[in-house]
């Protein structure tokens, strides 16, 4: 536990470069996705064990707050996948180390590009829920 | 031209202090081409003779003065003041390496580090009778492990690694670099044993390819590449 706290604190104090940032993002997005899956498994099981609860949950998920959460989820999954592929690539082809900076930043950019359409579509959907559009 | 530099140093004396604390010392006339190590000497000479830090060669060879300088692991004897302080006034923050127990001020206990180092058999193993003259090696075979031979065991890489901060039993980048130096040596015969050690729970797989070690290495060893080569050797079951 002490190691964990130290690590979290020092991640903000140690001036690592994009590699450290990419890894922090990887951990955050990974943990976030696992958290989502846990809830998702539980609420889906309600379809069988507690049908009323399931219907209620589905209604709740239409709430703009949950739609916002969904947008974050898509970003997390996308980032985790692309950054993960980059790490796999670097591990299998060690000589790529010299491009690590460019590959990492390239990964960030790629995530941004791929996320933009999802962001626009889901964002519009959420704003509709808020009756703004 | 001289500059005014404030040294912000993380201090801790187990005999006096309950907790580590930051102390500041302002040096009025610093030569821009002084090294951080020189400034530590000045602080010790002018302000507090009890300031503890290690140094030996003062020329980036022995690896005893690795510390965290302005947030990154460096050798104090290799950092010129004018590369980290711009203009004629500034601050330099110095603290001990992270992940190893602090003995006093900037001096850390290196024993856990060396314990990890010893675990990878960092020595030449070959029981075959030696040939009449020498064990011949081609220049290509020699080049194969050239990079890791530059390691000076300063611990800058290992203590820059978040995996090591979180779990001190991870052998760490430096030990893997040392292992690589022998694993890929065509004359050595213990590659299998070293790969077996490194494929365990606290071996290479704790490396998350974060690259902090590569940027921290004062000898410019491509540490992450070296680790990835060992990972590949383990997954292929052979070193070549
Ligand atoms: S004092 Fe020897 S490496 Fe710096």
Number of β-strand runs of chain B: 7
Sheet-strand content of chain B, in percent, reads 15-25%
How many structural domains does the protein architecture of chain B include?
2
Please give the CATH architecture of chain A: Up-down Bundle
How does the overall form of chain B come out from the CA principal axes?
elongated
Task: Quote the CATH topology of the largest domain in chain B.
Answer: Fumarate Reductase Iron-sulfur Protein, Chain B, domain 2
SSE layout and pairing:
The complex is a heterodimer of chains A (133) and B (240).
Chain A: H1 2-13, H2 18-49, H3 51-60, H4 64-92, H5 100-129
Helix pairs in contact in A: 2-3, 2-4, 4-5
Chain B: E1 3-11, E2 21-30, H1 36-46, E3 66-69, E4 72-75, H2 81-84, E5 89-95, E6 102-104, E7 107-108, H3 111-119, H4 139-143, H5 162-166, H6 172-183, H7 191-198, H8 212-216, H9 223-236
Parallel strand pairs in B: 1-5
Antiparallel strand pairs in B: 1-2, 3-4, 3-5, 6-7
FE2/S2 (inorganic) cluster binds next to loops of chain B.
Describe, in plain words, how this protein is organized in 3D:
The complex is a heterodimer of chains A (133) and B (240). With 133 residues, chain A is mainly α. Chain A has one domain: Fumarate reductase/succinate dehydrogenase, transmembrane subunit (3 helical TM bundles of succinate and fumarate reductases). Chain A contains five helices and no strands. In chain A, α2 packs across α3 and α2 crosses α4 (64-92). Chain A is globular and about 55 Å long. The relative contact order of chain A is 0.11. With 240 residues, chain B is α+β, with helices and mostly antiparallel strands. Chain B has nine helices and seven strands. Chain B has helices spanning 36-46, 81-84, 111-119, 139-143, 162-166, 172-183, 191-198, 212-216, 223-236; strands spanning 3-11, 21-30, 66-69, 72-75, 89-95, 102-104, 107-108. In chain B, the strands form two sheets. Chain B has a five-stranded mixed sheet, covered by helices on one side. A two-stranded antiparallel ribbon of chain B has the order 6-7. In chain B, α6 (172-183) packs antiparallel against α7. The radius of gyration of chain B is 20 Å and the shape is elongated. The termini of chain B are far apart. The interface between A and B is medium-sized, with 26 and 26 residues. The structure holds FE2/S2 (inorganic) cluster. The site of FE2/S2 (inorganic) cluster has 12 residues of chain B, from loops.
């Amino acid at each position: 536990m002490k190691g964990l706290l130290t690590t979290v604190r020092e991640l903000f104090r140690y001036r690592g470069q994009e590699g450290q940032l990419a890894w922090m993002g990887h951990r955050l997005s990974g943990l976030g996705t696992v958290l989502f899956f846990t809830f998702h498994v539980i609420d889906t099981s309600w379809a069988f064990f507690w049908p009323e609860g399931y219907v209620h949950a589905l209604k709740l998920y239409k709430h703009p707050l949950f739609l916002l959460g969904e947008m974050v989820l898509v970003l997390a999954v996308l980032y985790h996948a692309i950054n993960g592929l980059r790490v796999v690539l670097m591990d299998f082809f060690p000589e790529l180390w010299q491009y690590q900076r460019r590959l990492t930043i390239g990964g960030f950019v790629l995530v941004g590009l791929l996320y933009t359409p999802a962001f626009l579509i889901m964002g519009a959907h959420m704003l509709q829920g808020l009756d703004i559009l | 031209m001289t500059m005014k530099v404030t040294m912000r140093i993380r201090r801790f004396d187990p005999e006096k202090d309950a907790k580590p604390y930051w102390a500041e010392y302002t040096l009025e006339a610093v030569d821009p081409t002084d090294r951080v190590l020189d400034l530590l000497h000045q602080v010790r000479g002018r302000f507090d003779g009890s300031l503890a830090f290690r140094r030996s060669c003062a020329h980036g060879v022995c690896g005893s003065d690795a510390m965290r300088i302005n947030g990154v692991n460096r050798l104090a004897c290799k950092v010129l003041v004018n590369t980290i302080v711009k203009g004629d006034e500034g601050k330099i923050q110095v603290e001990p390496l992270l992940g190893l127990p602090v003995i006093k001020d900037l001096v850390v206990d290196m024993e856990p580090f060396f314990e990890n180092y010893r675990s990878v058999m960092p020595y030449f193993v070959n029981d075959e009778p030696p040939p009449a003259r020498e064990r011949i090696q081609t220049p290509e075979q020699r080049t194969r492990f050239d990079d890791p031979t530059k390691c000076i065991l300063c611990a800058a890489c290992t203590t820059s690694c978040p995996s090591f901060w979180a779990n001190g039993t991870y052998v760490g980048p430096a030990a893997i670099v040392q292992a690589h130096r022998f694993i890929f040596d065509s004359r050595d015969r213990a590659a299998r044993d070293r790969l077996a050690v490194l494929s365990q729970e606290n071996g290479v797989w704790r490396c998350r390819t974060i690259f902090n070690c590569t940027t921290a290495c004062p000898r410019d060893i491509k540490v992450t590449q070296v680790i990835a080569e060992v990972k590949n050797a383990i997954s292929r079951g052979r070193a070549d």
